[in-house]
Amino acid sequence: MPTNAPLNRKLRMGLIGGGQGAFIGRVHATAAVLDNRAAIVAGALSSDPARSKASAADYDIPTERAYGSYKEMAETEAKRADKVDFVSIATPNHTHFEIAKTFVEAGYNVICDKPLTFDLEQAEELLKVVEKSGVVFAVTHNYTGYPLVRQAREMVLNGDLGEINAVRSNYIQGWLRTRLESSDQKQAKWRTDPKQSGIAGCFGDIGTHAYNLGRFITGLLPNEISCSLKVFEEGRALDDYGVALVRFENGALATVTASQISHGRENDLFIEVDGTKGAIEWHQEEPNKLLVRKNGEPHKLYTRNGGPYLGAAHGASVRLPSGHPEAFFEAFANVYNTAYDAMVKRANGEKFETTNTVYPNIYDGVEGMLFITKCVESSKANGGWIPFRHPKSRK
Fold it and tell me: 51 by DSSP, 3-state: which?
């Protein structure tokens, strides 16, 4: 089948961020081209023009399309017959809004790292711009791309677990147990800086992933939230540990715990969902397994691509036979792939879904910013319960 039929060509990608020393930019670049549906053709890879252009060779970006700034990129690309179809934003939080707004207003599709923006006000404004523009806008809550996470969502929505009563979603790391930011480590430095990261540290960085995973799998809409955030490393400006309790509209309860100061923990995102008919458990560090439990029955271990008991959402997300592990890059690529489907439809003049998408979208991004805002607000009120629901939240 031709690439991206009926376009019959690869989508042209521009990368913002990802210059020398970056982490997530390389992940975006790898995931974007994994299925041969896109090619990186342009980039503004650093806020430092010299470093930006020097980094271009790392991505095989031609010299003439290695830009010193994202504004230069937007203006120059607009004049090309072969301009980029979309841009991926892999920069610190405080830069997302202006970059995304610039490209959305120019009619480009956008894939943006999370959190969506620096604060909720920016997120709300960006939502208006996106809705007006009609572009495809994805947010890389990449853990929703794992095949067995999508399987879990399908099982919940099909009623296999019955009514959902409880969700326990946790994201536990240990890399910030010491003041790593004081040693000028790039990732630690900007993630712990309120001027670049926003009002939350650990909870904005990884707590949003834990919350989003529970929302994605269950489809439950939140109603109220209580939260307690803590700085355990003396002198740090933003939280490095936190716990939130969410009440959903159906009466279910969810806990969200995030830590970056737990010894020996690497990237331990895991979730448990309890329903009236059954329960499931999934761990990101062992993503090819999904544990299913029912009282009075042996525990069942679902494995990625393990057999016909798995549903269509899972099947559309796998590339390899069972026993050949898939993980982080593939999950990230699944977010890209579903966004590509919408981009191809848009380029071909077809209608495409913008709200109830498989990939995380602008509405998920706004709700993530609302989550951060309400968690900080509740924590300042000693964990008091406050309303938590965005009028445009989707299931």
Answer: helix
